[in-house]
Design goal:
alpha/beta; 7-stranded parallel beta sheet
Length: 372
């Protein structure tokens, strides 16, 4: 069968990108009438599963090198939409539309890979150069936020490109939890008296979970055992450093790690928390924001332009380079119920300024079809 549109989800592996891909497939299935014109290219098991249950045309891509170099060689005059990432390497003669997912490429002042040894840092920077080339060689580029859009407009490499903004949307998977049985809450049953702060993120230096250990150390000095940090970190070198630091500072009672959780379980783990936190060095946008607002939870975030631009007055801002001040701000906030209720109310208002997942997919499809 001849397809007109190729939806490239091959680069997507986990995290926020995976959630956005899931939302795209769900929204596409609900609103697109001419599905036979499209084929989804996937490498993730769950995305393949969704394509199967919705009876969508798809192809499983197992060899990334083959995909980047050979898959599109005999295809011309097609439209290729890459949700997150650069265009496929050899896809000439086709129209490429890409979603910009690498915010560090527009923040040269931030040494994003500075935590790595020199040899690994060079490799990461070479990969970034390749990613940047694959992005600027696309025909059209879509950004998640106005802030990144404005930064790109001022960058000479984007001057002759068609640029769009399709803002983040409420997560289709995050809905009110009605079931009384919640395995996450059951595991936290012994911590019901504590204020539970959830950091829904993978193990990575950019996420700065090690800063939570420093905060816990300050709380211990104050003899304050009121806070429990809940994490969803997978086992890797950074997680090992995280655990070792917790043990070194003897602050085990301040942490509970669930490990990686399925995307469908996101509302369940959020419902067991009292607040969400994101203290990353840099993000373009974070699903944590809309998830907190959807689930009516207070939100603590990094005090940085990307976070302030996205959250406005719907978050509490933390400078985690100043651990003592951050700890005091956390304590003052959780002890002020009226203040937290105001943040939650602001979050509900802020959420209304974003589209829902179907509207977001509608905007994507309009760009893909050339309607904008």
């Amino acid at each position: 069968m001849e397809y007109e549109y190729f939806i490239n989800l091959v680069p997507i592996k986990s995290g926020g990108g995976l959630q956005n891909a899931i939302n795209f497939i769900i929204g596409f299935n609900e609103i697109e009438k001419n599905k036979n014109k499209y084929i989804f290219l996937v490498s993730h098991d769950y995305l393949e599963h969704l394509c199967k249950i919705y009876n969508l045309n798809y192809k499983r891509i197992s060899n990334r090198l083959f995909f980047e170099t050979l898959y599109f060689l005999n295809k011309k005059n097609k439209k290729i939409f890459t949700l997150f990432g650069g265009k496929p390497l050899f896809s000439y003669g086709n129209k490429n539309i890409v979603g910009f997912a690498y915010s560090n490429l527009l923040y040269p002042e931030i040494d994003f890979w500075g935590y790595l040894p020199r040899s690994k840092r060079i490799i990461k920077k070479l990969k970034d150069i390749y990613r940047f080339l694959m992005i600027i060689n696309a025909n059209e580029i879509i950004f998640e936020t106005d802030l990144l859009f404005e930064k790109a407009k001022k960058n000479r490499w984007f001057k002759n490109k068609r640029l769009y903004v399709v803002k983040m949307a409420a997560n289709a998977l995050v809905k009110e939890v009605r079931s009384k049985k919640n395995p996450y809450c059951e595991k936290l049953a012994n911590s019901n008296e504590k204020f539970k702060i959830l950091y829904l993120a993978s193990s990575h230096p950019n996420k700065r979970q090690l800063k939570l250990v420093e905060i816990a150390k300050e709380l211990k000095k104050m003899n304050n055992k009121k806070i429990l940090f809940i994490t969803t970190m997978q086992k890797n070198k950074y997680y090992k450093d995280f655990i070792n630091k917790i043990k070194k500072e003897c602050v085990e009672e301040y942490f509970f790690n669930f490990g990686i959780i399925p995307n469908k379980d996101v509302p369940y783990i959020i419902s067991c928390s009292d607040a969400l936190i994101n203290i990353a060095v840099l993000e373009s946008f974070s699903n944590n924001f809309v998830e907190a607002w959807q689930m009516k939870k207070p939100l603590f975030v990094t005090n940085a332009d990307w976070a302030v631009h996205n959250c406005k007055d719907a978050a509490i801002y933390l400078d985690v380079e100043n651990i003592m001040e951050t700890t005091k701000k956390l304590m003052n906030s959780i002890n002020n119920t009226v203040f937290l209720e105001k943040i939650v109310a602001n979050g509900e208002k802020r959420l209304k300024t974003f589209s829902n997942y179907k509207e977001k997919v509608f905007n994507y499809l309009n760009i893909i079809k050339g309607n904008l």
